Amino acid sequence: MEKAVPTNGGSFTLRLAVDIAQKAYALERQYHTPLFFYDAEQIMAAATDFFTVFSLLAKQSQVVRIKSDGQQADIVLQLMSEYMEERLQREDASEDTYKLAQDIQTLTQQLVLASLPSDVSLEEQVRQLKEELELSYRKVEFLEKKSRQMKEASWHTGRLKSESQEQKMLRSLKAGKAFERFIGVNQTVLELLALAAKAAKVQSTVLLCGASGTGKELIAEGIHQASPRAQGPLVKINCAAIPENLLESELFGHEKGSFSGAIKRKLGKFELAHCGTIFLDEIGEMELNMQAKLLRVLQNSQFERVGGEETIEVDVRIIAATNQNMERLVKENRFRADLYYRLNVIPIYLPSLTDRKQDIPLLLDHFMKKFSQDLGKKILGIKNEAMEALVNYDWPGNTRELRNIVERMVALTDNSYIGLEDIPACCMAERMKPPDDSIIKAGELFPLAEYEKQIIRAALEKHGSYTAAGKVLGITHKTVAAKAHKYGIDGLDRAE
After folding, report:
1. Is it the case that residue 421 has pLDDT exceeding 90?
2. Alpha helices in 226-381 (DSSP H)
């Protein structure tokens, strides 16, 4: 028998591995039933071997499976899974090293004594136990050192575990699987997701507002999937991508011979979306004459195909999206006020990436894992200085731009960790603010070459390589190398 235990991104420490092994040992003794763990890669470990268990859990699999074949396996599996789920929820990455060593010593004694045959002398048991303990302490030192090095060298999502009570409350408002693809823990994001979840339960029209690349289409898909219309079609149309003379035919369809090239009847998007949802993207780009026809559909759920006389009635839920200021368009008479009020029943505003900086590390982590798998790369993480540079970038293209940049970095890097040298120059230009010219005005002026020398030296000393220095200064690594050689500062170690 086996049972799956979701990890929920828990922090897997040596403390946790020891506690799990102790619990497994107690259950095995009580019920005379062996316990084993294995992950998605089918790597199995005895539940009482805490070093192997720690290595298994440290892979941070989404699910760890427990297996037992004894007569009371169902009881043992239930007790073990409940204990693990409870521990994973309250696990703290900080460890009391002294108490941990004591627990390891106690557990090791139990396991060694349990494994020794009864005819072994006490002196031999003591000798073997000392050897086991010495080996255990060496393993502890090695694993703790390796864990510290990995955490210091890279950013990891566990750093976002310290949330305020308000954030935890808002997180609980986030809808289920329908909105899982929209990643974020920012308060504004969680509030808009909660609003979208409420909007999904009713049939009212929704207007999604936000800059390009903020995820309006993802929210529209989530609303549809969480709604009673989820079994129906979700039809999408970009109003800005279709010429005005063809948009009416795309929306409402046309009859055969209604215009040149209409060789057969075509169903429009509204007919195709019957009993489902239609997503009208870039609604602010629609021409005024088309707005009047769309208003009729919103009011009466009726329309005629181009060149047709039959009135068609449809049951469609409308979600519209725009990256423009709709109220300003209404004031400028570029968008009908009556249509705007019809669309703006439930407005949802999506923040730009600049307004939710704390979500950038989560998005970077998500896209790095995705593209590492898609491109067959083994990217383990991102260095702290690279993470800082990407978080400080303004991301005018929002999440869409971030996704493209991550794909480029993963595709082109030869390293296990993304560093400054892997970041495109466009994302590095804003890291350094121009110096205050009052400093130069107030002091003595020097030849331009002297300033250039000091800048090149400072960049190399801070960033450690020609490539990284060039990224910050906005020049190529060859130019940095040439300048360093020119000013006699190329004697520094530059490992590329």
Report:
1. no
2. 244-252, 269-272, 288-300, 326-331, 337-343, 360-374
- 477 is in which domain, residue-wise? 437-486
Summarised one tens digit per residue, pLDDT across range 66-109 is: 888 777 888 888 888 888 877 776 654 444 554 555 566 566 65
Cβ proximity of 353 and 360 under 8 Å: yes
Contact 132, 75 (CB under 8 A): no
- Model confidence at 16: pLDDT above 80: no
pLDDT score for 115: 57
Residue 105 lies in a domain: yes
Number of structural domains, the chain? 4
Residue 74 placed within a domain: yes
Report, as an integer, the average pLDDT of 305-316: 92
- Residue 338: is its pLDDT beyond 80? yes
DSSP-derived secondary structure for 67-132: E--STTHHHHHHHHHHHHHHHHHH--S---HHHHHHHHHHHHHHHHHHHS-TTS-HHHHHHHHHHH
Pairing of strands 44-46, 36-38: antiparallel
Residues 481 and 487: their CA atoms lie apart, in Å, by: 10
The answer on 130 and 41 residing in a single domain is yes
Q: Which tokens in the block code for residue 496?
A: 């590329």
Please indicate, yes or no, whether residues 456 and 309 belong to a single structural domain of this protein. no
